[in-house]
Amino acid sequence: MTGCSTVRGGSRWRRALPRPTARGDRECHCGMGADLEARVARASAAVDRHDLAEAEALLTGLVAEDVPDSRLRCRVLIEWSWVRGARGDYPAARSGLTDAVALAERAGHRSLECEALRELGIVLRYQGEFRLADDVLARAVRTASEIGDFLEAGQAQFGRATIAHHLDQFAKARECLVAARRAAAAYQEGGGTVEQAELLLANICREEAVSARIARDFDAARALLEQARERYAGIGRRVGVANALRELGAVLDQVGDEEGARRRYGEAFAGYLRAGRRLGAAAVARRLGFLDLVAGSLRPELYARAETRLRQALRLAGGEPTNRAVATRLLGQVARLRGRLAEAEALLAQTEAVFGLDGAPDGPHRGLSAVELERGFLARDSGRPERALEHFTRALALLDQDADRGAASIAHHQIARQHVEAGRIGEALPHAVASFTLDEDDGRRLGDPDDRRSFYLGNNATYALAMRCAVRAGDGRTALVVATAARSEALAAFVRAGARLSPGLSDLVARIALITAEADPDGLLPGLYRELEHATSTELRQALSSSGTGVEDVLSSLPPGGHALLLDVMEDDGGTCTRVWLRAGQPPLVDEAALPGPVLEALSRYADAVADVGWDPQNDDLALLGEAVIPAGLAAELAAAATPPPLVVSTGGLLGPVPVAAVRVGGRFLAELAQLSLVPSFPLWIALRSRPRRPGTGVLAFLDPGLPGAAKERRALDQALAPVTSVPGDRLRAALAAADRFSAVVVSAHGSPPAVRPGTHIDGAARAGLAQALSLAPDDQLTAADLLTASLPEAFITASCWTGRVVQVVATEPFGLPTAALLAGARWVLAGSVDVGGAPAARIMASFYGYLRDLSPAAALHRAQVDYLAWQPAAPPSAWASLCIIGDGYSTPAVRPGDPEEELWTSSR
């Protein structure tokens, strides 16, 4: 976690477009008055164009003149003050606007009084006098409401919302923005100009996005900012566009898209400089400095650039309190990270002085919380751990934790770290869990899968600390919740909801199939598969709810006498395996085990799909793997069981590519000791178990006659599960589109080894993700993408090489043939995790089909593999253990034979 709170800064100078003068505001004038009005009009036009130099030149003489027309005099004061404020001369702007308010009030120019009050409120806000600014803007709202000026009322309410954000009054900010929207609607209904309404609505959208960003509703923030940018661009407001881009950069930064954030910040900075807006440019320089500061942990040379940017922010707008406070605090952080601790302490004292507070504030104060957080880091670096804990605790106390979730997560995380370093795990755990919960709740809300992955990586330390605290505290319940977070979450939610993918995805799948059929001379397929996986993940995420996975959810889903075992490694420590063991009537047990060097080497060979990896002698490595992944208590219960019990293994990021059945436990194979069912994650397991059972009879099959043992498999199918409806490869896709009337689909074909890294390349020999494929013919591949558009029965069986390989990366959906089949309606899949031996596989499958008529899939495969081992006890894993059940392997009856008299709608025997 970064050591910086997400304090928002960078207020913007803004001005309303010219309004029609209200009736009664005009005084009689002629001659010289007409000339004065023309000069004032030219100055106002220059202001509206943001041509500050011309406006200043025109207004300088007007301010010094004796203007008898009070209305014109008031307008001159407002325009002149606006220019002074845009130049950063806030005292002069304040003085001029104060005079304008008094003059307008005396002369009865109510509309000008509203405008002057609103502009004065903005200046006071830039001077850091937030409460006085809010009082002035509240007066502007009352005055505007009295005269029915909805535009001024909406603008003033918008200004109050920005102040509420600075004061951490998030509920009030929302109320003001709602009132501003009501005023904007009333203004439009009353015939107000489109341009003025659009400006107000754009401002409201942008500030609503700030609220959403602070609450870490990043999808809403991004949508609001895109809307704001379009509105600003539509009325030619370049500074407004820059404001929206700056906020968009902040959103991208918080979801972990550093490149996107820098790009948006750069565009905003250029826009501000072109418009002469020093304050906006300062805010961008400050945020770029923060990005360099964070990146400096890996590239220390960036600390110097961060310091340069932050000092640039002070040069551009050092007089604006928020900019001064945030830039100074970040400079203190840079000083600490560069070892200048005394300088860091002095800069933090300067930051606190900017707030002008004596003692503790009455309520939440994000600015002071950020200072306390940084003081905690400083105390830690100075070797004062208990003092650091005091500062972190105070930083948390200064926050509205419900509203400012990001800062609260950071503070909880640091408090937990201090307790861990002191050996106080019991005190650390609730804070570690609170930090994890805040991050996970926010991460689940992200609709874009790329944002989810970036967000997880950016907050990975939160997840890792919560898991380590749970393991050390022996808290199996918490460990389960942390371990299942960001694992197949969207896939599980989609299955649980019983949803179907949209027709738009079918169109994209059809495009991919067309290119595949015509070859790919332009190299389009990798990009199209990435597009399809992104679009599919996005649709899946729409089904997400806020609920996580609990112990009771897993236990209630287990078959009688069953066990569940979660195995995983954290992304920052691939050498340590976390194990959570669950069984009915007992509390969950959690521990961790180091993975020995030979085990890591073996896992790496399987992960990289090394040729013939499953055919090597490896009993010693498999025994070491068993010791590392199977808890001693579970091993003892499996060995003592009268009959092998069900065992659901959540393979996570550890065992997905491994033939789990061949893991050795106490001198025996795991397949001998348990009826195994594998799942990428427990959330997906629970969703599959809760899926309603669907009727269906008979088997739809494609068996490649060129495969060794194909005839034997076909005879076994006919004997055990007739009737078998066969289709040729060129008709299989059409049949799969309506295959749910069967109870099983069998596709026996060559499978292709996957790419080492998912999505790296797509060709006939190396496939991954939705490009994972079965070869129906030399030039015809049935891909996982094709299965997305299918309607499958409960069983999908493909005893083919590599088809059962599921690579689980945290916060990324584990796409492949098995998971695509589950999405398409299958309840369980039989597939090969590595290279599958032809003749041995045919023998095992023949036995499997015989058992499947009366047993669950997991029990049937267990019996078939044990039978083979009795015949060939020294067989390597690829000969017998590569086949696995993925999904719910405990449904019975697994496959329903059909009526032998049923008319077969297609046959190719």
UniProtKB/TrEMBL annotation:
Pfam families given in the database record: CHAT
Cited InterPro entries: CHAT_dom, TPR-like_helical_dom_sf, TPR_rpt
Top-level taxon in the UniProt lineage: Bacteria
Gene3D superfamilies the UniProt entry points to: Tetratricopeptide repeat domain
Residue ranges of coiled coil: 327-354
Residues passing through the membrane, by range: none
Assigned keywords, A-Z: Coiled coil
SUPFAM superfamilies per record: TPR-like (SSF48452)
The keyword Coiled coil belongs to this UniProt entry's keyword annotation: yes
Chain ranges of the CHAT domain: 623-888
Protein known as: CHAT domain-containing protein
Organism: Saccharothrix espanaensis (strain ATCC 51144 / DSM 44229 / JCM 9112 / NBRC 15066 / NRRL 15764)
Classification lineage: Bacteria, Bacillati, Actinomycetota, Actinomycetes, Pseudonocardiales
